[in-house]
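Throughout our pipeline, every protein is held as a single compact record rather than as scattered files. The record that follows is passed on verbatim for readers who wish to inspect the format:
___
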Amino acid sequence: MSITVNDLEKTVNSGLTTAVKRSEINFGQLFINIDIENLISVILFLKTNEKCKFRQLIDLTAVDYPQKEDRFKIVYLLLSHENNLRIIINIDVDEKVEIPSITKIFPSANWMEREVFDMYGIIFKEHPDLRRILTDYGFEGYPLRKDFPLTGHTEVRYSEDMKKVISEPVRLDQEYRNFDFESPWEGTKYIKEETDKNLTKDKKDD
């Protein structure tokens, strides 16, 4: 017999006791906050408990908050097919903290953890093959960190001269433009400067 999301919240809080720092129901889904040291025990409980039955890992991702002391929020999304319920697990961690890998519990976490490592630089300890999965092997930096430059550090292109794909530092062929905030009816600064020059020239010609 399936349970409701309210029943699930009671089961999780009673079964995990102090491991759950905070729980709330939003959009028909249960959100819980835990500490990193409780991750493995919480995941195991949610997967093996007869009332929970969260036997599928839907997603594993992260959010970057550079201004916070605990910079990253690690997010796990689990699904219970039997109960038709989802649970979202949030963990706030410092960027130097290594996250326990859950690949032994959910093998599908392998590529998900690699993606989080590739995009955010978050280390998953005891991962069987922690290497980049979306970017190139020689890629520098972590693209989804808020302090990563929008243009990146390097670009990949095909060189007609060398007849191969090469990687080189990013070059912006067009300089950044400066915009003013004057009324369009008055004209931008450079238009007014051109107009003044033309008027001065016309007066000299007269």
Summary: The mean pLDDT is 88. The radius of gyration is 27 Å.
